Amino acid sequence: MRLQLLLSLFLVVHLVVSQKLKEPASNLRDQEDEQSAEEDTEDAPFEFTEEAAFHDMHQSTPSAEGKMEKTPIEPENPTEHSKISHEVDSHEPTPAPAQIDTHTMEEHDSHSHIHGHSIHDGEISSQIKSKEESKKEMKSKSEPKEESEEGNEEDEGEVEYEVPEEEQVHRETVTTRMPMKSMDKNEAMFREELAVRPPNESLEQRPEIAPITAPTPLPEPAIKFDNINDEDYGENEAESTKPDAVDNEVIEQLVNKFLNTGSTTDQKGSAPKFVNKEAQKLLGSSPYWSDKGVKAIGSIKDSDEAEKWLDGYYKEAQKVLYQVTTAGWRYFTSISSNSRKSLAEAQDVMSRFVHSTSMQAKQFDAAAMPEEMKKQLHYVSFEGMSALKEKDHQAFTSAQDHINQQISETLTCEKGMKAPCTLKKIDISAIFNSENDADHLKYLWGAFVRNVARLKPHYKKILDLSNTAAQLNGFSDGGAMWRSAFDLSTKNSPPKFDLKQQMQQIYEKILPLYKQLHAYIRRQISGIYKNPIGLTKDQTIPAHLFGSTEGGDWSFHYESTKPNSEEDQIAEEIIENMQMQNYTSKTMFIKAYRYFKSVGFPPLPKSFWTNSVFQRVWSKDMLCEPAAAFDMRDGEDFRVKACSQIGEPDFKLAHSLLAQVYYQFLYRKQPLAFRESASPAINEAIANVFLHLASNPNYLYSQKLVSAESLQVKESTIINRLYREALDNVAKIPFALTADTWRYEILEGNTSDHQWNEKWWKLRETLEGVRPPEDKFLPAHIDAFIHTQISQVHSPAVRNLIGYVAQFQILKSLCPPETELAEGCILSEDTTMRLREMMEMGSSIDWLKALEMLTGKAELDATPLLEYYKPLIGWLENANEISQVYIGWDGEGTRFNNDEIPEMMSNGKISSGILSQDRVAFPGGDCTNGEECLLDSHCDGKECICNDGLFTLKFDNTVSCVATDPRKSGFMDENGEPIGVGLVPSETTTAEPPKQNLTTTTVTTKMMTTRTSTTLSFFWVIISIALARLL
């Protein structure tokens, strides 16, 4: 009878549980939470935990008689374990702990039972108690236990089990009918199967459940930032979001005065001549500003006198450099006509200082001085172009400005169109980037070089004056003076090595890679431009088919020609994680800074965080490109200026800029003459090394910017990235050699004027495998002027070549020997020790010594560069072999067959037709880099000025071009200076651009909001009256 009752009770409870298990997991968890809360209120001496459930589940096994027996547990690591308390139910046989065997799991399912709660992680209790029974049973546990009639085992009280560490980890995935954290896949499947199993189905008939597997532990981060102390990053600095208070009465008085008298001052006379008064105060402030009474060259041999002179020089030079850097900072972060004028005045003051002090330094016999003093005197006595007489220096500057203006402002007509022409250089460049019509591009190229051919005499003037300055500095010609920064020659000492020969050796070493790249892109170009006339499969490539007007830049063909269509998703993952972690532009720099500290670099001063500009300040006109690191020359103030946005590119940029800042910071204790990098090329190389290291997957994982799955980088991703870099950088190496060799030949007098064009194309065909777009070129032309590197950059291109080659030498020296250079590595405090020591030396060592300190070799070596590109080299060789393309450009000139022309994955030339912000400028803005001047203005070579017949109207930092003289309407005084009534200088920063107010007036005035609406209304009334009078 008792057995029948028990069987009936079991069936009823089983049906109830089955129905409950069909409910959603969320409802089940809610019920379990409620049940747990009720049980917690009971005065029971036992504690049921998820750990206990896990323990019993894994440590019990049935005996042959069907009873549970205990088996001693031997933990693998007795020092690392957990003790789990578990009070045994006195009314049920105590299950004995034992290791679960997967072959006996089904049998164990019918016995495993803990305090009336079923364990469903691969197990099920054969007896389930109702909630009421559980409550009664729990109450009974607080009463004295008695021996059962049937002679059951005595209550063993509290039992402590020791569980191995790996089971502690695994235990977290176990789910009971107590409050749960999670339900794994096996459990969910088992519950579903249990819910639909008929009550009379035997357990042996069920399919075997897969054993539970422990979750794969996440890899440890390569860098742990927990030990990096937080600092005050200036986050709590209260930034002003409002302008200074404005006195309404004062405004009203000033408005009445300038409307009635045209001036805001009662004093007569003109406005100050100079904007930068502080710089002007330095002129003549000490004997270092005069070259009068200077003794004969090399006549002073007393080292004490030389040391005394150098001490005074450094004090005065620091004042000058501070004014120049301060004026430069103001201009780059807040462009206006005044800030530009202030910078120009500071640079002029510095030029005068350099000229006078270099003349004084030449009095000393450097050869008779100690070695360190000799270096300092050589540094101070070198004038460069400042050695020219004032008249010649002005002619040199004027020629540069004229060429810059004409290159950017020259108008070219479209094919078949008559004047007036509309296309500027910036428009032509945009067309080359976005169009696939080879004939159209060929026409535009020829039309532009014909238009700028008239600038040839101005360029000849620049080269002649360069030779003159070189001779005044003790060099044979301008080319020798250019090379002196790298071959380490002086007027008194010959070069330490032949730079031209060294560059030729570098070129020959990378030539096999370049030829493979050239052959691959040549075949791809046949598909992009539909097998254009002039392109063959075994000779040179016409210059107008590279997607750019700039030599050596093939990057615009990347999307059309990339090796693999599958793109890397790292960039998207990074920006998603940045958004989830609430990154700002400044956060990226903080993360980069903590990285540098983790590898041994010292803390930076707090002023770095409070004075730097990390993102675009929308209340000002900023010169965003290029981002730069600033040494304010006082030994304490170091800054960066960047218009960064969250994402992978600017995250890497932050590391590059921090590397430059640390270089400046570490050499700050050197004498002023040596507070420079060993060479701009070395500085650039180090910056690019850290830019590359910032993309290492293990590092990004340490910064919690990518998941563990992203640690395994696909080979296709690496190939695509290397291919993009090669189009942008490897292709520039032969062009840089061409540009410098061509100019060296002219400066040395080996090429006459009428041979310039012929020599240019001969070098390009030989070194680059590039030919002129047209079949014949005119000797009178100067086709090289279409390239900015020639027309607007008057310095050796070899600087970038040296920096690029040295970059991989430095990378290899910093990384472990087994490193795949293309993937980068993780640095440590030990590996950066030599780098920090080298940085501390500043320019007291030359760039060869700096390279030796880092790499062990005092010479350039392209081997690490080729090692870096090894994956791409193998891919190119294989792809070119499969396509049977000709390697080189010395073939017979055979055109591509139709079956040899590849199909493009995408044209890669989508263009919005809208010029980007960095390619346009407004009146008063900078246009030295070819920006197009808008709003009735044109470029004078430096800034956008109003067109002829228009007047310049200035308000705060805004310049507008108007048809009526502003002085007649009270906007300016008689000297052309703005009255500036009610205008409040802005020092605020905002994260977002302000909303634009659309007006119908033709004069745009930049104003800042005042503290009261009354002041704002009053100001607009006055402006409206003045505009009405003006227009």
Automatic annotation (TrEMBL):
Keyword list, A-Z: Carboxypeptidase, Disulfide bond, Glycoprotein, Hydrolase, Metal-binding, Metalloprotease, Protease, Signal, Zinc
Molecular-function annotations in GO: carboxypeptidase activity; metal ion binding; metallopeptidase activity; peptidyl-dipeptidase activity
Binding site for chloride: R799
Basic and acidic residues: bias regions: 66-92, 103-145
Biased composition (Acidic residues): 31-50, 146-166
E.C. number(s) listed in UniProt: 3.4.-.-
Disulfide bond positions: C413-C421, C624-C643
Top-level lineage group: Eukaryota
Region (Disordered): 22-175
Cofactor binding note: Binds 1 zinc ion per subunit.
Biological process per Gene Ontology, one example term: proteolysis
Enzyme class: hydrolase
GO cellular component: membrane
CDD domains, per the entry: M2_ACE (cd06461)
Binding site for Zn(2+) 2: E684
Signal peptide: 1-18
One Pfam family of this chain: Peptidase_M2
Cofactor field: Zn(2+)
Residues that bind Zn(2+) 1: E684
PROSITE patterns documented for this protein: PEPTIDASE_M2
Family label: Belongs to the peptidase M2 family.
Protein name: Angiotensin-converting enzyme
Species this protein is from: Mesorhabditis belari
